[in-house]
Amino acid sequence: MRSEINEMRRIQKWQGIEQEFRVGMPHRQPHHQQHPRQQQTFQESIEAGISIFKALKSHKFFGSIPAMIYSRGYDGILRNGSRIYLCNFSLEIATPECRNAFELLKYDKAMEFYMQIASEIVNCVSERGYECEHENGLCADAADVVRVCVWRANTELNPSFTRGTHENYAISRDFKKENILPFLVLKPIFFGAGGYVSEKLGSEKEMINAAEYVISPRAIATKYVYGGGGERKHPIFSIKGITNLRIHVDSGEGLRLEVARFLNNAITSFVICAIEDEKIRRVDKLEEPLATFKAISRETGGEWKIKLGNGSTVGAIDYINSHYLDAIEGLFEEKEASEWDIYALKTFKRLVEKMNAGLLEDEFVVKRVEWLLKMHLLEREMLQFEGVDGVVSGSESEKRMRIAACFAFSNVCDADFYEAVADEIGVERLLSDEDIADALLNPPRNSRASLRNRLLEEIIGMGEHPDNIFVRWNRIICPPTREKEVIFDELDGWDERRIEEEVHKVRMKWK
After folding, report:
1. Is 251 helix (H, G, I), strand (E, B) or coil?
2. Judging by beta carbons within 10 Å of its beta carbon (0-12, 13-18, 19+), is residue 308 exposed, middle or buried?
3. Is the dihedral of CA 5, 8, 10, 15 positive or negative?
4. Under 8 Å between Cβ of 3 and 151
5. For the chain, how far is it from start to end, CA to CA, in angstroms?
6. 131-141 as b/e, with b when 16 or more CB fall inside 10 Å?
7. Alpha-carbon distance 323 to 325, whole Å?
8. Which of 200, 254, 300, 308 is most buried, most CB within 10 Å of its CB?
């Protein structure tokens, strides 16, 4: 699946993910039910995020390899090229620049492992007073201690409180953003994370009673179609960048299912490439994109109808078929596709066919669509997992139990409910242990992230103090003057030879 293909003809799209994590303590309830405390203060969240950051800053793999190679305040670069930082009240990790969806999947999963490692260190220190070595990362004598946890949930029960999973894709300067809008509105049908939200504000009990299960909690929290400056927060997407433009999908999903994460980014990449190659020249406009986005998310029964700008009503999946899937197949006829590209298209086409036929309970579909997997679990399989740590309590109401299970699914720490479900149900795994280990320890090969890490190590090794270094995706600056500045705008072409040339230039400049 990693065969070398002519780069000029490859279906390739530089991309990345920014994930805001919910860090804090769960409810103090029987069986360590991993439902985040709704009343947790912003200060508590910030303090918990700082403790996670500090844990990674101090951690060394195998006792000698720093997990974080640079930090300034609470902004750091991890060994694998990811950036970690405090963003408002949330701890956030942004993956390094990845050249395709499979590469990104590796680094998306690696960020979860970084959070697991950090939370285990924090809990060890708080329980024992020091970081200890222990099997499976857990202290055996701390079973009854309420532990710091990390969630990938995109909203609280109250959708006003959101945490983003932002997808980024490099685009050309003449990219026609109006042609991707309907796809982004409709893609939660296949790639929604699923979860409970309550649009009624009040006490926790009142919100739980009013909560409903939706395909995409993030869609319910979205306020605008296009993002921009000022107060236009929480849009479906925006266009960002100066030297390198990118589409910033603010309404992305905090997916944990490997197949769902991979297909989401692969198919979105294909749509962008098809637009840039003019396989998609125009699309029929949706009458009310934002309202459609929310309505699609509330419809968990499969009756996805959308109203177009011309007044007609069509099936959402039929729209995907006619406007996007046909164009992607045309793209594949002209471009060289990797085996992972072929797998993505083949799998997506099969999902489209089955879901368009209403087969939402089909095993193939349930194991690859995260919102359906969660719903299936909640409605039919919950009793199988009675007693799994972090899931249910016999004294809880059924509604509270379901909500807790949804949040537990997004908890990447100690009692990883998602992993228990994945193993029990037998979901398809795309990543090997070797893939994840490589993504934990190394940036993508021949990438701008490889260059950035190499330059940072060189500059710090020459005696520059990290507090005097500003690191951005495309530059490294040592103030107060800009005499010591290195700029690397290009995304492509960073092989070992060219990286060493840049390192040599820096050595000369920093002398």
Report:
1. coil
2. middle
3. positive
4. no
5. 44
6. eeeeeeebbee
7. 6
8. 254
Question: Buried b / exposed e across 425-438, counting CB within 10 Å, b at 16+?
Answer: eebeebbeeebbeb
Q: How many CB atoms lie within 10 A of CB 247?
A: 22
Q: Mean pLDDT of all residues in the chain? A: 87
pLDDT at site 390: 47
Confidence of residue 143 (pLDDT cuts 50, 70, 90): very low
Instruction: Give the integer Cα–Cα distance in Å for 78 and 91.
Output: 14
- The structure tokens listed for 511 are 């002398």
Q: What does the H/E/C string look like for 166-196?
A: EEEEECCCCCCHHHCHHHHHHCHHHHCCCEE
pLDDT for 394 beyond 80:
no
Q: How many CB atoms lie within 10 A of CB 55?
A: 24
In degrees, to the nearest 5, what angle opens at C-alpha 225 toward C-alphas 221 and 226? 120
Q: CA 326 to CA 114: how far, in whole Å? A: 39
Report the distance separating Cα 390 and Cα 415, nearest Å. 6
**DSSP annotation of 233:** -
The model's pLDDT over 35-61, given as tens digits with 9 standing for 90+, comes to 554 455 667 778 889 999 999 999 999
